[in-house]
Amino acid sequence: MTETRKKAVVLLSGGLDSATVLAIARSQNYELYALSFSYGQRHIIELEAARRVAEATGVTAHRIAKIDLRIFGGSALTADIDVPKGRDAEAMSHGIPITYVPARNTIFLSFALAWAEVLGSSDIFIGVNALDYSGYPDCRPEFIAAYEKMADLATRAGVEGAQALRIHTPLMAMTKAQIVARGLELGVDYSLTSSCYDPSAQGAPCGQCDSCLLRQKGFSENGRSDPLAYPGNQAVR
């Protein structure tokens, strides 16, 4: 008899973290449903990476939801605001950066919750991280726990007892180096991914935004080179 696998909705941006989370969900034998967003982000090239990662991972379905958070702005990713460049670890560890998109994970998880209910799934995977990364408020464990409680009150499946939502956050307490190590262990092809907040029109990473610097640091601490081509091939130590 063929065992029926549990279904999971995996939020997939196309970046390093989400590609690793997708591989982790696959390693746990979930049937994968990848969900990406076209939300007016300046780094929309990440959606091409999401498509590549989804195809390489062998997901059952990949959906791209279209919303436009540019109507609100308030972030360097959705408004005409410069993306911070060249910040050191000390600067990154203080305050909430201008690359924070207001309520983004709340919105994304709501879409994931809707799809999970339709699929009859109680499992959502998201690549939030509370270490070695900018301090976004919607990446904290308190937020995830509160969202799980809310979700069980917000859907027919939750109210009727057919769904007890679990939001999986396997990267929550990992450093970027640990995330890279785990992904390499699972065979993630990081050359397919895109992490830059301010890439060129051709998709080349800037190499100096917070996301690029942290990504390169993660590879460097594993004694590996990031497979993406950065300007001047600079390395972060």
Q: Give the quaternary arrangement of the chains.
A: single chain
Strand order of the largest sheet: 3-2-1-4-5
Q: Helix count?
A: 8
Order of helices and strands: EHEHEHHEHHEHH
CATH superfamily: HUPs
**Strand-residue proportion:** 5-15%
Radius of gyration: 17 Å
Question: What fold name goes in the CATH topology slot?
Answer: Rossmann fold
**Percent of residues in helices:** 25-40%
Keywords:
237 residues; alpha/beta; Rossmann fold; five-stranded parallel β-sheet; 8 helices; 35% helix; 11% strand
Please give a structural write-up.
The chain is 35% helix and 11% strand. With 237 residues, it is an alpha/beta fold. It has a single domain (7-224), classed as Rossmann fold (3-Layer(aba) Sandwich), CATH 3.40.50.620. It has a five-stranded parallel beta sheet, sandwiched between helices. Helix 1 (16-27) crosses helix 7 (176-185) and helix 7 packs across helix 8. The longest helix is centred in the middle third of the chain and has 16 residues, at 104-119.
Compact overview of the structure:
With 237 residues, this protein is α/β, with parallel strands linked by helices. Helices cover 35% and strands 11% of the residues.
Give me the secondary-structure topology.
Blueprint: E1 7-11, H1 16-27, E2 31-38, H2 46-57, E3 61-66, H3 89-92, H4 104-119, E4 123-125, H5 141-154, H6 156-159, E5 166-168, H7 176-185, H8 210-220
Parallel strand pairs: 1-2, 1-4, 2-3, 4-5
